């Protein structure tokens, strides 16, 4: 093999610098900020974060959404991927339709769902026309927390299942057909083939999709803000409020560090739980 | 692999969209323009009207830039520390400009004021513009306040004997209660959403009306009674209130029949359907009819790159004709004497009448915006919203909540050393939480 010398490093350098300057430096600064108060080391920011009345709600809301949405999205995306394998005609059109939400910003998606679920929205209009309600029914208030959570979950499913689906689809397309054909020859049922052959082979893609989707779900912000506003605090919206509303950068930094720690923990869990054998790594 | 092609295209399209969006967002560098930094007229529609209508006739090309109130101080001081200020003219409320005077970021304007002929500026506001010193540090720009608006359908439900122009909070509760009883709907609304101005309702209306103060009386027995009564009133409030930002929207859609908000945030409803709505003063409590006139002023930054042009712009913005133009465009009222023309929009007339009635009410109790809190203003607002959330939405006992939040209030005041402001009695040092 010919030695490439410094060239690969030079080519990589700009991207490393770019990330280093605009990601690692602020990251370290934020982490330091979270543990400082008035120029000295302190846990004051963490106390104030944990003591705030929205903190517990933010934690519970964030975890509720992640724990409900991520498994549902994976199941749905797996189902969509498997179904699409058997589609011949119109496959491209189905692909397009399923990936429409990918092209929409999360805030725009939030506003779309707000237009559906608000008092004078599409849902109430439909229910009214069907004679199921007699007037505007409020869905997104502090008095209806379960419906609010359900609304956010449905909206998140609509918005972000596509990204899981795309990753799984890419994985499925790379799977060699031979394994399944061999299993079929040996008399495995479709169900057995899925559980014993396809799913284990998909593990690397599933791992990627889960990590990506879980980290993004912990960072959910715009959807919660659009639909829930003050009624549905999540970790990132609280970080935003402390930064811009209350102008307390220390507490905002604590929230940011907390979100990062949770994301890293989730990633590590996936890496261990879905360990990909060395021979299967690309 | 061919099948995946549409996908790559969709990714590429999404990426291109992102990049285009970013390019459109990047501000165009226009160095020769005067930069006018303002905490007022922030909502996009108001800012656009400022740029395209009010400033269209300005004597100098101006770049109107808005900033969140708690960030104004940081912004201006950062520019000064960088040694190369960008903003020349600063527009903000009295309480927002005061901390900038403390850090000597505002240039004296006595010469500018001397050159302003042919206009009578409200003398009390002009005096306030000295910010407690001997030199003029801001020149009054425009004023506004908060009022109430009701759909005419709500009027038959007014409690017997109640005068809509002299309501009490008790009567407001009865009124909303009557409406709920007869219609089955909760049609009273407050702007308690993330972008709403609800903290101002507590700071300038509810607290002064019930306790005669804001900081001193924060956890007083009067305050405890007030929160208990307000919690009872909240039973008749539309639960969507915690999502509302601008009350003109739910008023127009009919989700709400009675609402409290900033005049500029009610104007759309009044202007579009002046025959459907009435405007009236905020209610009164045991200590009077607390209300908060809001005066915005214009200052020139120390070391401003375009100080002379900024002075010209001040002259322009305080011309009576421009003040009327400002009223028509963004619903902020003049601070100089003007001839109110007869062609004033009927909606504006409704609002102007309500404001006049509030000021002229015999029990009127004027409250100032929080003064001297600077960057901690946001936290001060949060304190009231947290108290509201705990007492009213979560039903926690008011006494315990007030004691807890009182400690937070003490910390903010101690850190900022802010003295008391009206209607709290004056203090020599930092305002005490009694």
What can you tell me about this protein's structure?
- The complex is a heterodimer of chains A (282) and B (434).
- With 282 residues, chain A is mainly α.
- Chain A has a single domain, classed as Orthogonal Bundle (MetI-like fold), CATH 1.10.3720.10.
- Chain A has 13 helices and 2 strands.
- Chain A has helices at 7-34, 44-51, 55-85, 91-98, 106-117, 122-129, 145-174, 177-185, 190-201, 203-218, 222-228, 235-245, 249-273; strands at residues 36-37, 40-41.
- In chain A, strands 1-2 form a two-stranded antiparallel ribbon.
- The two termini of chain A are 20 Å apart.
- The relative contact order of chain A is 0.13.
- The model of chain A has no long low-confidence stretch (mean pLDDT 90).
- Chain B is of the alpha/beta class and 434 residues long.
- Chain B has 2 domains: 34-144 and 294-343, Periplasmic binding protein-like II (D-Maltodextrin-Binding Protein, domain 2); 146-292 and 363-416, 3-Layer(aba) Sandwich (D-Maltodextrin-Binding Protein, domain 2).
- In chain B, the strands form 3 sheets. Chain B has a 5-stranded mixed β-sheet, sandwiched between helices.
- In chain B, α8 (198-211) crosses α9 and α8 packs across α15 (377-393).
- The longest helix of chain B is centred in the first third of the chain and has 21 residues, at 5-25.
- Mean pLDDT of chain B is 87; it is low at 1-31.
- The A-B interface holds A 52-53, 91-92, 95-96, 99, 102-103, 119-120, 135-136, 138, 140-143, 166, 170, 173, 225, 229-231, 244-248 and B 1, 3-4, 6-7, 10, 13-14, 17, 68, 70-71, 185, 192-194, 238-240, 242-243, 253, 255, 375-379, 381-382, 386, 389-390, 393.
């Amino acid at each position: 093999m010919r030695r490439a010398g410094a060239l690969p490093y030079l080519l990589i350098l700009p991207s490393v610098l770019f990330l280093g300057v605009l990601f690692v430096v602020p990251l370290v600064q934020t982490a330091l900020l979270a543990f400082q108060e008035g120029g000295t080391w302190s846990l004051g920011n963490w106390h104030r974060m944990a003591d705030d009345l929205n903190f517990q709600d933010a934690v519970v809301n964030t975890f509720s959404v992640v724990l409900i949405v991520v498994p549902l999205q994976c199941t749905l995306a797996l189902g969509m991927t498997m179904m699409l394998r058997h589609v011949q005609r119109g496959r491209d059109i189905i692909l397009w339709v399923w990936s429409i939400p990918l092209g929409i910003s999360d805030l725009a998606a939030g506003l779309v769902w707000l237009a559906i679920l608000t008092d004078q929205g599409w849902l109430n209009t439909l229910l009214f026309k069907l004679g199921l309600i007699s007037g505007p029914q409020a869905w997104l208030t502090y008095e209806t927390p379960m419906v609010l959570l359900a609304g956010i979950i449905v909206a998140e499913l609509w918005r972000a299942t596509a990204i899981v689906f795309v990753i799984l689809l890419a994985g499925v397309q790379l799977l060699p057909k031979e394994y399944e054909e061999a299993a079929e020859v040996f008399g495995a049922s479709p169900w057995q083939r899925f559980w014993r052959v396809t799913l284990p082979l998909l593990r690397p893609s599933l791992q990627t999709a889960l990590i990506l989707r879980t980290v993004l779900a912990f960072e959910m912000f715009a959807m919660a803000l659009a639909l829930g506003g003050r009624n549905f605090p999540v970790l990132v919206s609280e970080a935003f409020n402390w930064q811009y509303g209350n102008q307390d950068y220390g507490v905002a930094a604590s929230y940011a560090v907390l979100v990062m720690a949770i994301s890293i923990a989730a990633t590590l869990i996936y890496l261990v739980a879905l360990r990909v054998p060395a021979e299967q790594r690309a | 692999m061919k099948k995946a092609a549409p996908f790559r295209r969709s990714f590429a399209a999404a990426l291109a969209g992102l990049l285009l969006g970013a390019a459109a967002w990047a501000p165009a560098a226009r160095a020769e323009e005067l930069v006018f930094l303002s905490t007022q007229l922030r909502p996009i529609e108001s800012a656009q009207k400022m740029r395209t209508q009010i400033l269209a006739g300005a004597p100098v090309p101006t770049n109107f830039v808005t900033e969140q109130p708690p960030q104004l101080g940081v912004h201006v001081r950062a520019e000064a520390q960088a040694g190369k200020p960008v903003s020349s003219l600063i527009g903000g409320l009295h309480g927002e400009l005061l901390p900038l005077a403390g850090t000597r970021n505002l240039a004296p304007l006595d010469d500018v004021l001397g050159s302003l002929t042919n206009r009578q500026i409200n003398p009390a506001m002009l005096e306030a513009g000295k910010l407690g010193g001997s030199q003029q540090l801001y020149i009054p720009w425009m004023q506004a306040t908060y009022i109430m608006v009701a759909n005419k359908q709500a009027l038959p439900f007014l409690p017997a004997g109640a005068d809509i122009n002299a309501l009490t909070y008790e009567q407001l509760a009865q009124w909303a209660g009557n409406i709920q009883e007869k219609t089955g709907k909760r049609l009273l609304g407050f702007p308690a959403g993330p972008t709403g101005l609800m903290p101002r309702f507590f700071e300038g209306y509810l607290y002064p009306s019930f306790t005669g103060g804001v900081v001193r009386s924060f956890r007083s027995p009067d305050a405890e009674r007030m929160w208990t009564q307000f919690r009872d009133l909240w039973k008749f409030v539309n639960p969507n209130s915690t999502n509302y930002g601008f009350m003109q929207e739910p008023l127009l859609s009919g989700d709400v029949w009675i609402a409290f908000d900033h005049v500029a945030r009610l104007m759309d409803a009044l202007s579009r359907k002046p025959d459907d709505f009435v405007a009236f003063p905020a209610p009164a409590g045991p200590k009077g009819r607390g209300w908060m006139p809001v005066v915005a002023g214009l200052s020139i930054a120390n070391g401003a790159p375009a100080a002379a042009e900024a002075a010209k712009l001040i002259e322009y913005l305080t011309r009576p004709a421009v003040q009327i133009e400002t009223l028509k465009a963004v619903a902020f009222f003049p601070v100089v004497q003007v001839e109110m023309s007869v062609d004033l929009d009927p909606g504006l007339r409704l609002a102007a009448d309500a404001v006049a009635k509030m000021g002229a009410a015999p029990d009127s109790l004027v409250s100032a915006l929080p003064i001297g809190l600077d960057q901690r203003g946001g936290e001060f607002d949060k304190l009231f919203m947290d108290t509201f959330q705990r007492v009213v939405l979560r039903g926690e006992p008011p006494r315990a909540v007030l004691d807890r939040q009182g400690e937070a209030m003490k910390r903010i005041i101690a850190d900022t050393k802010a003295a008391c402001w009206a209607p709290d009695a004056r203090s020599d040092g930092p305002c005490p939480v009694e």
